[in-house]
Amino acid sequence: MKAALQEPKRTDFTPQTFKKAFMLLELFSIEKFELTAKEMGYMAHMNTSSLYRYLAIMEESGYLYKDPETGKYSIGLRVVELGGIAMCRMDFRRHGQPALDRISSELKMNGNMGVLYQGDLLHIAFSIWISGEPNYSIIGRRTPVVCTAMGKVLLSSLETSGVHEIINRYGWRPRTKNSISSFTDLDKALKKIRKQGFAIDNEENSLGSCCLAFPILDQKGAVVAAISASTSSKRFAEEYQQIYDCVKKNAEEATYHMGYTGKYPVITVQPVIKELGI
Questions:
Q1: Across 155-169, average pLDDT
Q2: Is there a contact between 213 and 228 (Cβ–Cβ < 8 Å)?
Q3: 158 Cβ partners below 8 Å, 6+ apart?
Q4: Which of 108, 124, 176, 223 makes an SS bond possible with 157, Cβ 3.0 to 4.6 Å?
Q5: 276, 119 in Cβ contact below 8 A?
Q6: Which stretch of DSSP H or E encloses residue 63?
Q7: In this predicted model, what pLDDT tens digit does every residue of 24-37 receive, in sequence order?
Q8: Measured between alpha carbons, how far is 138 from 92 in angstroms, rounded to an integer?
Q9: CA–CA separation, 78 and 62 (whole Å)
Q10: Which residues, in sequence order, are bridge partners of residue 24?
């Protein structure tokens, strides 16, 4: 007697309703902050009747907003509210914001703060002096982690195997001809950063722009975030020492308020990947 065929065991037990709702929210980006229902249905591969049920519920709950004139959807204020709640638990943001404001005021440059998230540098705070980029100061802006000074500071606190795992998972995604795009170059750069305690973005994210970043440490000395100053390549070269001194001083003060009183700067390598939200 032939044995009955067994169906493959299910390994994903996430309710499909949740997955579809999250998928719809993740369609939006800084580049596409408004979408029509047709665009969302096409991008999410959802039929019209099912899509409109989701959209109606998510709009009613405040997760989506529908413009009455254009009919386009965008992220609702409920998501903004939840984002604010999430940031309230980030002590390093609370202590780091005054540091960013001082950096911006003293250097007359943009101050930035970021954390590691899904292979990107996630920007969580700014102090803007002046910027030609209309999207520059948006909280939640993401940049490939290896292309930024802050991102390299954060990666330098991870074991090499963990760094390689992140890159293999999310890819290199170079932004300019100066962007690091090999493990040999990245490992060499991170080794140097661990030794000196800070990192530089030498036109790796945007041609004509440079950045210098230091870590923010928690009470135990673990790197939890990074802050930086960014400006034109010309100003960066001319005022390098002033930039270095200012960012270091303010990053150290933010670290002190986090409860760390040891040697600074220091980057301690963590045995596990400590990405925010992973």
A1: 95
A2: yes
A3: 166, 269, 270, 273, 274
A4: 223
A5: no
A6: none
A7: 999 998 889 999 99
A8: 18
A9: 5
A10: none
